[in-house]
Structures are given as structure tokens and as C-alpha cells.
Amino acid sequence: MEAISRMMDKAISGSLLSGFTVGTEESSTLQVSHLLFADDTLIFCAVEPNQILNLRYLLTWFEAISSLKVNLAKSELVPVGDVPHIEDLAAILECRNASLPLKYLGLPLGAKFKAQTIWDGVLEIMERRLAGWKRMYLSKGGRLTLIKSTLSNLPTYFLSLFPIPVSVAQRMEKLQRDFLWGGLGDEFKFHLVKWDQICQPIQNGGLAVRNLTMFNAALLGKWLWRYGCERDALWRRVIEMKYGSEVGGWCTAHSRAPYGVSLWKHISKGWDKFSKYIRFEVGEGRQLRFLHDLWCGETILREVYPDLYRIACDKDALVANHMQVCNATTLWNLDFIRESQDWEIDSISSLLNLLYSTKVKGSGVDTICWMPKTQKGFQVASLGKILTADNLQHRNIIMVSWCYLCKINGETTNHVLLHCPYAKEVWDMVFGMFGVHWVMPRKTIDLLAYWQGSFGQHQHFEIWKCIPHCLMWCLWRERNSRSFEGIEKNVADLKLLVLRTLFKWVSASCHFPCTTFLEFLDLCSFQV
Q1: What is the pLDDT of residues 445-459, one digit of tens each?
Q2: Lowest-confidence segment of 208-222, 374-388, 442-456, 513-527 by average pLDDT
Q3: Can you list the positions of beta strands (E) in 177-281?
Q4: Do the strands 367-370 and 96-97 form a parallel or antiparallel pair, or are they unpaired?
Q5: Are 176 and 151 in contact (CB under 8 A)?
Q6: Where are the alpha helices (DSSP H) in 284-403?
């Protein structure tokens, strides 16, 4: 493909062919004649018979030089706008004629980027992948894996370029929700947790399913990042020629024109939100504005020192205008329209201290980087969404609220899993195993938070962190066994079930030295 690219460039320089031009005559322009991707070639040409004929000659010469055959029967001549006699031009090339929109490299070319119809193919494939019959053969974990893989493989290509319509996002999320929570066939099943919570990270109590709208915004925002980084890329040069750039070239100028391709206009509207998460590293400082860009401190200098901004000589000055590098030492100078007053001395002193405490390279290009993000703790959430009697009543299911375990109190999530006398005996066994004296918190969410926090610092941590999940799992299964099957275990049998289940879980989840259940009991010195 390198050979045909060189031949196209030669034909353009000799005025035998002409592509399309981006930019205005007042400023510099950019001419694009062809795009190559693997064995796909997109050629732009003027609507003139002699240029079409020259293109045919060029392809013939390419066949003779490379001994490769250009299959014109599979090629298409696509007019942009109203082109008369398109059939005659196609006859010169001996190819088919087509019209926009069409598919190129899997994406719709020339289609309205907000049209819902461009998503029909993606929705159809998702419906096939998440077909209802597959629910019968997959566990919840299998369904979740299939949902994530389907979202990762299918619509990501579209989401990285086109803004997803609200109705399409809602339809995709409904397909995912119904597949995750659905029963056999068309059997109705309650959606136990809000979809927003399902989309939360695992450490925040979710299942890490991507929120389509947020994922789409992140992928579109990546173009803003690439625009600031890929200065020499062809796509970036085309966008810059069409819309212009702000000072420094980090983003395009705001366009108010009602015509032209508006896809980039839509993407560029996200700059205000995107810019809150980035900062700049100073090289020579020739692409960064001293007062308007975030390169020093945690906030732009214009907002930190509004009194100094008002008296600045050049409010749009670059960092390089205020910076001097001498013998690897950076010196700063400030220019004001008048002599500073007494009440401004503190601000000037504070600004200079901030400047001299900021590390700058002093050479090389200025770069864009992500804002550092501080992790604020570890959160484990118990949502209280299991179908206890009180939750079923909230869903308009009429039933008597009583606990199947103790048969005394009303049934709530916190009661069944924590405060029921039947459950309390099992918890007391656990605390006796580790020699812990503790008052049970009121809510499940508090117990899980304390369990993973400082309360969870134990010698056998791998066992300790599995205990609440294992115990709650066994309690809930016992509750369902009594409710639906009429089968009850006494407390001693339930304790033994908890210990055996805990041994299986720990053995499967980590490298554990015990190979038998008795060794497991001896290691932890259980007092049952």
C-alpha cells in the first residue's frame, strides 16, 4: 500500500488528481487525497472525467508495477452531494456506483450521527447474544460474564465515535437487566437491585457492569485527550484546519457555524467537563497560558489570585513569558500595569512561593496529564435487597411478616442475618472461635464495613474475611429451606454446615495449608 500512496502523492503534485481541501485561503490549507487501512483504500477525487481517467491509469500502472490485481468490480464510486452523470464516471472506472450513507470499516459513513437507525445492527446482535433461552443454562455469575463480554465486544466501536441516543441506551440496559434477573422462559422475576448500583465498582458493592451513558462519554472524551497529544496525526490536522485551535492547541476553537459536520462539535462540548480532570506539565512553556491553564497548584492562577489577575499586563501571556531558565535554575518574573499596593504584597509573595515550589522541566514540549486522584477508603455495602417479608411487602406482595428462623419477630434483612436468636447463636460461635468480644451493630452494612476495617486484623485473615459472607449465605439458605420446602435444621447442624462451607470456600479461594476439615479446625482452634 506504500507504493500506491507514493503514486497518489506524485499524481497530486502533478495536478493529475485533486482531493478535498480543508481550511481557508486566508490561512494555511490541508489537502487530503486518500486514506489507507490494511487492504481498504479510500480515494478522494474531483468530479471531472479527466481526473477519473487519470485515476484509472494510475491503478493500471500500479497493477503492472506490483503484479497485484485491483478488483474494480468490487469497488464503488460514491458521490458526495449532487453529482450529475455519475453512471458515466463509474463506467470509466468500470466499477459500481453507490450513495451515502454506507458502511466503511464497520462504521456508517455519511450517516447522521444522532440517528437511532445506525444502532439497529448493534441492538440486533445484542438481542441474539443475550437471548432469553440462554438464561436457563447459566448461573447469575455466567449471565454477568456474558453481559460484560457482550458490552465489551459489540458496541464499543460505535460508542467510541457516536453519542448514544437516550432511547438506545435504555433499550440496551433493559436487555442486560432482563437477562441478569430473568427467570426461565418468560417467567417474571424481581429486579432486586437498582441498575445504577449494579454499575458501581465491586469494591463499592456493585457488579462492575459499565454504565452505557458514562462509558460513551468517557470514550468520546478520549478524542479530546488525543487531540492534545497527537499533534501530527492526520485526523487532528483536519479538525484543526476546519475549526481552528485555542491558544496552545489543546482544544479546538468554539464553533457557532450552523453548517458542516457537527460530530466534532458535539465531542468538543465535553471540554469543560473533561478539563476538570487534567493538568499540564511545563516544558518550555510556549503552549500554556500562565493565568488560564492548570499547571501550577490545584487551581488556575486566575481564580486563586483575582486581585493580581486584574492588574496583569498581559492576561493571556504564556508561561514562557514569565519564566527564565539559567544554568538549570528557573527564575520567575511578574509584570503588572502599575506598581503593587501594600494590600497586594501578600498575594505576590504567595504567588512567588507557589511558582518556586513548582517543578518545571524548562525544556522540551509541554504535556497534558491526568489529575492525580486520591482513594478515599474502602467501602463494602450491604444493600438489604434480599426478598425478606418486609421487602416483599414494599413490592405490593401481601403476606404475613414473621421470621422463619425464630418464628417470633418480623422478618427484615438485619433481623434474619444478624439479630435473630437463631442467627445469634451462630455468630456467637464465630466470635468464640477468634476470641472476640463484640456488640453486634444494628445494620448489615455496618458489620461488613467494620469486618473489613481495623476490626478485621487477625492472624488467619483469609478465613476471617470469608466468615460474614459464608454465614449469611448459610442463614439465608436455611431460611429459604424452611419457607419453601418445610425442612428445618437445628442450631448444631447449621453450625456444622457453616464450618464445612467455610472450609470449602477458603480452600477454593486461596493457597491454604490444610487439606482436611479436621486440620482446618485444629489450625483455627475452633471452640464449637
Answers
A1: 878 777 765 554 556
A2: 374-388
A3: 278-281
A4: unpaired
A5: yes
A6: 301-304, 306-310, 319-322, 345-357, 389-394
